[in-house]
Design goal:
It is built from 15 helices and six strands. It is α/β, with parallel strands linked by helices and about 350 residues long. The protein has one domain: Rossmann fold (3-Layer(aba) Sandwich). A six-stranded parallel β-sheet has the order 3-2-1-4-5-6, with helices on both faces. The chain starts with 8 loop residues before the first helix and ends in a 6-residue tail after the last helix. The protein binds nicotinate mononucleotide and 5,6-dimethylbenzimidazole. Nicotinate mononucleotide binds next to strand 4, helix 6 and helix 11. It is an enzyme of class 2 (transferase). It comes from Niastella yeongjuensis.
């Protein structure tokens, strides 16, 4: 006699989700998220513990030229102080959704150490170099930033956090994100260039021309599969640190929420690093970091929708936001919690005595 067929863990989870008191699929995307989280935690009653938003801040040498940005470089440091004082949008949404916020100085052009503010000092440098003239950072700096991002997440996980969203702050960083995405996907710079924090039509054209020049100067068409070199040419300290943070969070099987355009560019860099290390994925059958992540929102920054489509993913929210700071991730967190809650708390047809379809 053939041995009885044993359900795989994924089949068991699907069965539990399908037997909740609702028509199959009626909770839509929440059902996908519940399945994804169950698979990440390899348990049928998963839990979110000590959810965090970590905002990485860094400055960009190119921003000093004013060729690609509407706001001056000083705004990065000023906004970090605003985060530390609780006055930014991300502070409001974290308070609303009971998320712990950590602010990391990955490389802002300002010294916060003498100030009475709660900012994690992970400074790699006082802003990157202007990549119109030279590489943004050294290979060693790129590696240091990645390692620092990994260690920050490792510490949070050790302190009990299992759900995390990453945000960023850095005047000029939509330009870095554009160049990184263009190199990694092989799609033209113009595809990913947008208005950032608020460029007009003329300024947008100047940004496109400038970034095309940078793309050619550093032969970025040859660097798509060399993520560390790519970061060193056109990256940002906050983007490199976030890439390390994603790598560690996925490695530790945390629930990871992806914010907007810049956060997605850091994820793609991390994904290339993951691919190079050829480590087996923590979850059977998941081959990329993308499989592991929950995409929080679609930013209004023009390139975001394009890269999301390229990846074949649909985020939870579409609020026409383009702020960064992790605000999209913070707003999506209650949906993720709702997915976990229905899986844990809803009755099944059997337990509630509700008749199922014939
Ligand atoms: O997250 C997004 O999708 C997003 C889209 C546009 C702008 N931003 C934020 O705006 C800043 C970068 O804009 P820019 O024009 O200076 O490159 C940076 O601090 C980001 O957090 C963020
Ligand atoms: C004011 C301001 C706040 C921000 N938060 C994230 N990016 C930002 C850019 C600007 C300009």
């Amino acid at each position: 006699m053939a041995a009885p067929y044993k359900l795989t863990f994924e089949e068991q989870l699907r069965h539990i989700i399908d037997n909740k008191t609702k028509p199959p699929g009626a909770l839509g995307r929440l059902e996908e998220i519940a399945l994804q989280i169950g698979l990440i935690q390899q348990i049928t009653n998963p839990a979110i513990q000590h959810p965090h938003i970590v905002v990485f801040a860094g400055d960009h040498g190119i921003a000093k030229t004013g060729l690609v940005n509407a706001y001056p470089q000083e705004v990065t440091a000023q906004m970090v102080l605003n985060f530390a004082q609780g006055g930014a949008a991300i502070n409001v949404f974290c308070r609303q959704n009971k998320l712990t916020l950590k602010v990391v100085d990955a490389g802002v052009n300002f010294d916060f150490t003498s100030m009475p503010v709660k900012v994690i000092n992970a400074k790699i440098g006082f802003g990157t170099k202007n990549y119109l003239n030279e590489p943004a950072m050294t290979i060693v700096e790129a590696e240091q930033a990645i390692e620092k991002g990994r260690s920050i997440v490792r510490q949070l996980a050790a302190d009990g956090c299992n759900c995390i969203g990453f945000g960023e702050m850095g005047i000029g960083n939509t330009s870095s994100a554009t160049l990184l995405l263009s190199a990694i996907t092989g799609l033209p710079v113009v595809e990913f260039t947008g208005r950032g924090a608020g460029l007009n039509d003329d300024q947008l054209q100047k940004k496109i021309d400038t970034l095309q020049q940078v793309y050619e100067k550093h032969a970025l068409n040859t660097l798509g599969q060399q993520p560390i070199e790519l970061l060193s040419k056109v990256g940002g300290f906050e983007i490199a640190m976030m890439a390390g943070a994603y790598l560690e969070a996925v490695h530790l099987k945390m629930i990871v929420l992806v914010d907007g355009f810049i956060a997605t560019s850091a994820l793609l860099v991390a994904n290339e690093i993951f691919r190079l290390t050829k480590q087996p994925s923590a979850i059977p059958g998941w081959t990329t970091l993308i499989d592991h992540c929950i995409f929080a929102h679609t930013s209004q920054e023009a390139g975001h929708e394009k890269i999301l489509r390229h990846l074949g993913v649909t985020p939870l929210l579409h609020l026409a936001m383009r702020l960064g700071e992790g605000t999209g991730a913070a707003l999506a967190m209650p949906m993720v919690q709702a997915a976990v809650n229905f899986l844990n708390e809803m009755a099944s047809f059997e337990s509630a005595g509700v008749s199922n379809k014939e």
